Amino acid sequence: MEALIPRGILFHGPAGTGKTLFAKAMATALDATIYIVSGPELKSMWVGQGEANVRDLFRRARQSAPSVIVFDEIDSLAPQRGQGVADSGAANSMVAQLLTEMDGFRKSDLVFVVGTTNLPESMDRALLRPGRFEFLIEVPLPNVADRTAIAKIYTKKMGVVLSEPVLRYLVRRTEGLTGDNLNAVFRALKRQELRTTKTDFDTADIDAALQRKSARVPVMDAESERRVAIHEAGHALLAMLIEGATPIEEISIQPNAEGALGYVMRAVSHKMSMTEREMRGDICIGLGGTYAERMVLGHVSTGASNDLQKVNEMAREMVESFGMSNLGPVVSLKGVSPSPQRLMQIEDEISRILGEEMKRARELLETNRAMHTALVESLLEKKILRLEDFAGMVKS
User: Fold this and answer.
1) Active-site option among 101, 232, 249, 349
2) Topology, domain 144-211
3) Rounded to the nearest 5 degrees, what angle is found at the Cα of 22, between the Cα atoms of 180 and 210?
4) I need a labelling partner for 240 at 20 to 30 A (CA). Which of 14, 87, 273, 337 fits?
5) Could you confirm whether 73 is annotated as catalytic?
């Protein structure tokens, strides 16, 4: 059994997903002594001192075995050798010393090594071969079920009571965020409770807690607010009208701390792939804000920039990667430069797809202009529209 135990595990994934926490939990479960060090802590300005620090760390770990050594941000300690900036004598010596220590384990040395990194691709390849960090375990961003479980832990830990609808709203609003972000939300809610004695938190409190990540929130004048309402209503209406589009759950023209002046929140999709029709639908919805501004105001604003970037990327992927165009299954290959004629064909197809979806967006918005106007007026009045506010607006 001892021969089967790996010498090391590498946890990798985005910052704040709990990689170091997992390493601590492993040490606790093993009832082992734990040493947590970050790469920069072991480095030294003195020649040879960094390697000596590594040797001393492993010596102390062997003396107190069973033990677990956790190298936090190990990519800073052991960068890939031969890559320019990291290719210094000191950096190479530190990597070599770490490799020597991991290779020098005896079966009687009950020392386990755990590394955490946000950038596994920047680590020295020699550390990732069998016999060293044998297991690479990704700790990804939490999904819906994960965020729900994390939120329930914090409701109990912080003593913050959230109703089921508000809890579900929090889980939806934190798509793409980490457990640390959820922790920050609950700390903000608890501070609010202590200041105001309020305990019946609603979705507005969740929005405010999420915005506290930054003290600077944009303030719009009446003209800008109307333009944003026209833009977001264009996206939202097309998402309601296009068959098979991911349903929308919330429309907002309330600026947030991330710099967004408005948004349309759509339900979380768990599809592993998309059809050509679905991709075209998303392109059309993405163009809805641009055309809505032109339809109502006669011109477009710079607020459409991000939308246009996304729809152009999607159209290019359809043509170059997925064979979803008149060019058929001939797609672009990595490392192969297409001919000038081929490049012209690709650009023509991208323009055709975008043109057809802009035409569809125009026809749908013009046909349903009264509905768009109603959405804009509701947004200007309420600032945030939730599912119950527009659920019956479009009949299938």
Assistant:
1) 232
2) Helicase, Ruva Protein; domain 3 (1.10.8)
3) 10
4) 273
5) no
